[in-house]
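Title: Comparing notes on inverse folding

I've been comparing how different people in this forum approach sequence design from structure. To keep things fair, I'm posting one structure and asking everyone to reply with a full sequence. Here's the target:
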């Protein structure tokens, strides 16, 4: 049977409307998935571009001058999460006047404890050569360096001392199972003096792996192509050993450096003379050799990837404004703020809703109170923050701390809890009340034993909204909570919660990776709270027969 024209038009309009609904629903889901997915990806996966004064060419065994084919291994305590060290970092650890901290290298808040070998008969030659390897020229061991008399003692002390670093000979026969060997990076890129000068507002600032590949593969011919001045690129090399050659070939993606057409020197002095006297030239040499000859160098950017949100990040205490350590204290502070805010706001909010629905005469005054509550629910949080700063912090003299922040946040979420609770109570059928009263129950018994259980899913929904606002607010806490990353110790203690920590990590450019990891933890806390509350609401609905 053929449909009438009006029916066909109605069906077409319905299909178009359905199509728009699906389109916008799909776009919304895609946008939400993309946002949450990106945050979670960056939260779990760290990606950093860090400038170093040396190339990513590693040496597990460091040759020692003045010894008979003897080498040096750097060892650290196994709890230190370090991938490798640069020569300048090793020099600082052993010679710095103040006590060094591993946070500068691994973001672990752990004092460095360096160990060195005491010069004694039988080991003096090695001890002197090792000192020359780990210390800058003309420097002595720092006062924080502890000396040991033998290699077994060195390995044992490094294994059992938190933050320890030491060294042993490359042919050491003892066990190194309880320590970790750390490779050293010692090779720098250097240039002729005229290559990195400023000319027409251009100067070579840094290099990365891609630029090095273009240089040594010959695809870039002029320094202008890499951000430098108008000079021909002239690479030259001195191949220190087979390991150096193999790693450099992998770094610049060249099959064989000796067959690449790049000048390769066998005499080190001639090599440095060539680089120093040839405009546009570039070479690679040991860090200390480059600096001893006062030749210019530029940083090399290394891409470092790895896990971001780790167990240690969750369990360690924060340090240095969150740049080191973890967020354990901040998670606890967040949970405490949620708990105490709900402790203050839930009884007051639900009691106010009960009064407005069950006891108050529905007149102009009640309508005015509802309008005021709805208005307060829409006020920006920064206004509540200013009020809390003036009233609780200054007028009442509570100071910036946990109690001032909790009371301010309580006032902020109170209108939401009152309105949602009021709507939930109003939605309970009047027959429930009438049946309870007809059975002889008092009004108070009816409210607590009949009305509140029936309205509890809606009340819990309001509490969830309140929790979400507590967890996500930043502006109100900036004025009342402070920014200390220590654990809350009392009502007047300044503190920091996850949302505020996330904001400060971004705004102060402390660490974007740590900011994303903190955001990921925040998302999971909200998901867990929502899931637990949803299950609770479902159970209450089943118990009430809904």
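Reply #1:
Here's my take.
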């Amino acid at each position: 049977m053929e449909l009438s024209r009006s029916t066909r038009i109605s069906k077409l309009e319905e299909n178009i409307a359905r199509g728009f609904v699906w389109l916008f629903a799909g776009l919304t889901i895609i946008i939400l998935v993309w946002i949450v997915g990106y945050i979670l990806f960056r939260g779990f996966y760290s990606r950093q571009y860090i400038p170093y004064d040396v190339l990513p060419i590693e040496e597990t065994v460091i040759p020692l001058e003045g010894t008979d084919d003897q080498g040096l291994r750097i060892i650290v305590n196994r709890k230190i999460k370090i991938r490798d060290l640069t020569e300048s970092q090793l020099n600082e650890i052993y010679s710095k006047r103040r006590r060094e901290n591993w946070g500068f290298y691994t973001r672990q808040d752990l004092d460095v404890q360096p160990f060195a070998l005491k010069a004694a008969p039988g080991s003096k030659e090695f001890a002197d050569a090792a000192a020359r390897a780990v210390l800058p020229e003309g420097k002595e061991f720092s006062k924080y360096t502890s000396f040991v008399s033998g290699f077994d003692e060195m390995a044992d002390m490094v294994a059992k001392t938190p933050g320890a670093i030491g060294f042993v000979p490359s042919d050491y026969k003892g066990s190194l199972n309880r320590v970790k060997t750390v490779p050293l990076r010692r090779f720098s890129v250097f240039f002729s003096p005229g290559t990195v000068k400023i000319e027409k507002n251009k100067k070579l600032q840094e290099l990365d792996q891609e630029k090095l590949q273009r240089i040594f593969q010959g695809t870039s011919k002029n320094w202008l192509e890499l951000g430098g001045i108008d000079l021909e690129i002239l690479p030259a090399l001195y191949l220190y050993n087979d390991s150096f050659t193999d790693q450099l070939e992998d770094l610049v993606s060249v099959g064989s450096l000796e067959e690449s057409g790049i000048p390769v020197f066998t005499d080190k002095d001639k090599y440095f003379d060539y680089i120093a006297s040839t405009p546009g030239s570039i070479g690679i040499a040991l860090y200390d050799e480059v600096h001893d000859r006062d030749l210019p160098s530029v940083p090399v950017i290394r891409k470092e990837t790895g896990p971001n949100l780790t167990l240690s990040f969750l369990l360690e205490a924060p340090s240095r404004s969150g740049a080191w350590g973890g967020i354990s204290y901040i998670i606890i502070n967040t949970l405490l703020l949620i708990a105490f805010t709900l402790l203050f706001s839930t009884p007051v909010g639900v009691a106010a809703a009960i009064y407005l629905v069950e006891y108050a005469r529905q007149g102009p005054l009640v309508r005015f109170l509802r309008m005021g509550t709805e208005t307060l629910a829409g006020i920006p949080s920064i206004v509540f923050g200013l009020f809390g700063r003036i009233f609780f912090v200054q007028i009442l003299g509570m100071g910036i701390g946990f109690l001032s922040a909790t009371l301010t946040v309580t006032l902020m979420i109170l209108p939401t809890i009152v309105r949602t609770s009021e709507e939930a109570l109003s939605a309970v059928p009047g027959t429930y009340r009438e049946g309870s009263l007809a059975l002889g129950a008092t009004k108070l018994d009816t409210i607590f034993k009949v009305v509140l259980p029936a309205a509890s899913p809606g009340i819990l929904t309001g509490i969830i909204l309140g929790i979400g606002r507590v967890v996500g607010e930043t502006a109100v806490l900036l004025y009342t909570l402070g920014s200390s990353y220590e654990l809350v110790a009392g009502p007047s203690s300044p503190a920091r919660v996850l949302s505020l920590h996330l904001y400060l990590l971004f705004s102060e450019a402390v660490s974007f990776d740590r900011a994303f990891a903190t955001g990921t933890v925040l998302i999971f806390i909200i998901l867990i709270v929502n899931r637990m509350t949803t299950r609770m609401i479902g159970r209450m609905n089943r118990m009430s027969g809904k």
